[in-house]
Structure formats: C-alpha cells, structure tokens
Automatic annotation (TrEMBL):
PANTHER family: ARSENATE REDUCTASE. This is Arsenate reductase (Glutaredoxin). Belongs to the ArsC family. PROSITE patterns: ARSC. It comes from the Bacteria. It holds the Pfam family ArsC. Gene3D superfamilies: Glutaredoxin. The keyword Oxidoreductase applies. One of its GO terms (molecular function) is arsenate reductase (glutaredoxin) activity. The keyword Oxidoreductase applies. Keywords: Oxidoreductase.
Length: 117
C-alpha cells in the first residue's frame, strides 16, 4: 500500500497526488495539516528517507524564519517542532514498501513507484 502525506494547497503535493492517480496506484491520503503525523511516524519517515529532522523542515516558511532559523536544536526538538507546526514538514512525502520519497522534484516519486520492492 502506498501512502501520501498531502497538502492540497501545495502544487507539488497536488502533482504527486495526480501522479498516483494516473498510475492507478492504490493509495492512502493523510492530509498532514489536519491529521498531524505522530513523533513515531516522523521518526519512521526520517529513517526511510535517511534524513535528519532538520533536513525535512521547510526553511522558507515564515514560522521557521521567525522562530527557529539559526537555532541549534536536537533531533528530538526538531521532531517536536514539526508535530507542533506541521506546516514545517516538507511535502509531499510518499511511502511505498518501507521506502519514502519527497516529491521535490516529482521524479523522486516516479522512481519510488518504479521500484519493484
């Protein structure tokens, strides 16, 4: 089963959603601004992406620039911040068979869908 962490107001997220539909993929949608990922979910996503929490944060968001830019925080603190402010989570994220990809660029998701396992 494929899962997309989706924000319908984001053009890249809408493009990823459309790509999944065009590929007739069976997928689950989590609108992560309404249904915020848990700490455990974010830890799992980060593990699949092989990323540090700070790498998953949208640094162009106003809240990041105003409150967090330049702060030296721990991984645990960054994850807590993403749970408290899900708008900071990079998007879209697609998960398939224990692997994940961020849809920037969309080719990352195309490659994930092509991966046989």
């Amino acid at each position: 089963m494929i899962k997309i962490y989706h924000n319908n107001r984001c053009s890249k997220s809408r493009a990823a959603y459309q790509l999944l539909e065009e590929n007739h993929a069976e997928f689950e949608v989590q609108e992560y601004l309404k249904e915020v990922p848990t700490i455990k979910e974010l830890q799992d996503i980060l593990s699949m992406l092989k990323m540090k929490p700070l790498d998953l944060i949208r640094k162009t968001e106003t809240i990041f620039r105003e409150k967090y830019s330049g702060k030296d925080l721990t991984d645990v603190e960054w994850i807590d911040i993403m749970v408290e402010n899900p708008i900071l989570i990079e998007r879209p994220i697609v998960i398939k068979d224990g692997k994940a990809a961020i849809g920037r660029p969309i080719e990352n998701i195309i490659d994930l869908l092509k991966d046989p396992k």
